[in-house]
Protein 1
Amino acid sequence: SSVTFPGNTLADDGWPAADRADIEKAEAFLNGIDTYRARFTQVAWDGGYSHGWLWLERPHYLRVEYAPPDNLLLVADGNLLIFFDRDIDQVSQFQYDTGPFRFLLSKEINFSRDMIVNAIQRHAGLLRIKLVEESDPGQGFVTLVFEETPMRLVKWEVTDSENKTTQVTLYEHTFGLPLERKLFRFTGHDRLRHDYRYGTYE
């Protein structure tokens, strides 16, 4: 882990120059994504395990699709974040600036614009950036984990106000591939059909 010493050159926001450079490198990586696909695993605070596929077309489109038996789907369709729980046939809609996905869906990703970079750590080739809400720091935080060589996002951790953490790990990364618009659509027909998944599952 990194250690910051008094007397290090400081950036305008108070971070040592080396830390500010790492923040900017992470922002530049995310801002540079056009299209992206990855598999993910998710481990909840209570040990619950799930997995699936994630597709991203920055800055406005996202699909997070869970593998059976988890019948959950999250779609950012260009206007809203849509969360679908098929088991109870419930659809919930959220604004893009809600929750941990804003760092993927912002037109220009700037960690310090409406969040605060609370901590930076480097260890074993990984860069960890902890972000808290500027308006409500008590509601929890998000930690982004990057591999540095090559630079890529490999995990995020969401910790709520009760200090319960859910971890999402990304792997099998693919960048720059053409993505069909149907991935980022959720209609009444999509809600009804049972073969709504587009990922391949064993």
Note: The radius of gyration is 18 Å.
Protein 2
Amino acid sequence: IVRRSIDLCPIFGISAPTYGAGKSFLAELIGMVLYGREPTSTTMPDARDEAEQRKWIFTFLIGGDPMVLIDNANLEVRSTILAKVTGTGQHTDRVLGANQQATASTRTIWVLTGRNLQVDNDLADRTIVIRIKQLGREFKRPRHEMFQWAAKNRESFIRAGLIIMMAYRQECGRQNVSSLVNLKSSRRPQWDRMVREPIYWLT
């Protein structure tokens, strides 16, 4: 909801032990709630080809994609450049097909999906992994119905998220403290203050 107001944000992973558990579907629903459309979907180039990965990532950054879904990353995810761009607010690189450089904001939400998803050491402390189980058939709904539901209710979801964040800051002010939860600080202080702490406080 507040990604554009936060300089650094974790990568989000969605993992399940089997195929067909709804990993990509969950990411697409999140995109529908946040932006009213499905996220840009892609697959990751070979980790051994760093130049290709650089061009691939910078294409999304320079294009201003708010959310990118890296789908079916079923092997261990390795990417020095992805670790780099998620650790800084801006990234400068060469524009594809041109002999010039450009600087782009890195305030993109990156989502990885994969069966038994794993990330390497460079990405481990930058990634929050959601682990889901395959849903029983009695809980499933047609895809188009779920997208319609998400689009219809996105305003309510966004309002609820903002209310949680505002309520947390107000309670901090009422108690005259900077934080209401005892959490070890991460490398992302804005994320901690605006998202991580309110969620822990709520739960």
Note: The radius of gyration is 18 Å.
Protein 3
Amino acid sequence: TCPNPLAAVLKKELGGVPFVEQVRQCTNSFLMDREDVRQSMTVINNVIKEVKGGRNYLIFPEGTRSPDGSLLRFKSGMSLIVQQTKADVLPCNITYMNGKKFRSHVIVNVGEVIPFETLGFSDAQSPRELKGATRMIRAAVENCAGEKPEMTDCGDFESAVRAAAAAAESGDVVLMSPASASFDQFKNFMVRGECFKKIIKEL
């Protein structure tokens, strides 16, 4: 178990969505009503208290998904949390591999940590500082998007192994890392591992 799991601020529309709701409850994450300013500020204040207590939060500063996957304008609530907690920021960017589809493969790109001291905050705590910090964080998120790696959908396990072997060059390492259950094609993960070794020996 994780003694201090990562929590998140999610839009209220995700409340009740299977799996997402279970994760939200397990992590004690917050749902935010973007149409209710008072409720939104209550969430922000609660997050500030928890971050000051040492908890890490995942924030989606756009507030929603963009229709085409491009980066939208960031809300200032995230910068307000940073300003009040003096927390560092770790920018991340989600890249859709096959266009913005429900079952699209995605890549999570992680940037360099932004130290609080570099965000231009002062004791004045002015709205201008919030806007400036928001722009800096948005630029960092935009810049951490890496190149899209080449991905090949092979359909079944053996085809994937043979395609990887054909693409590999001398000195390369081919790692079997399915990141998913084995039940669709194998009895269990051990059978899948034995199949992997068998295919490799036949190459």
Note: The mean pLDDT is 87.
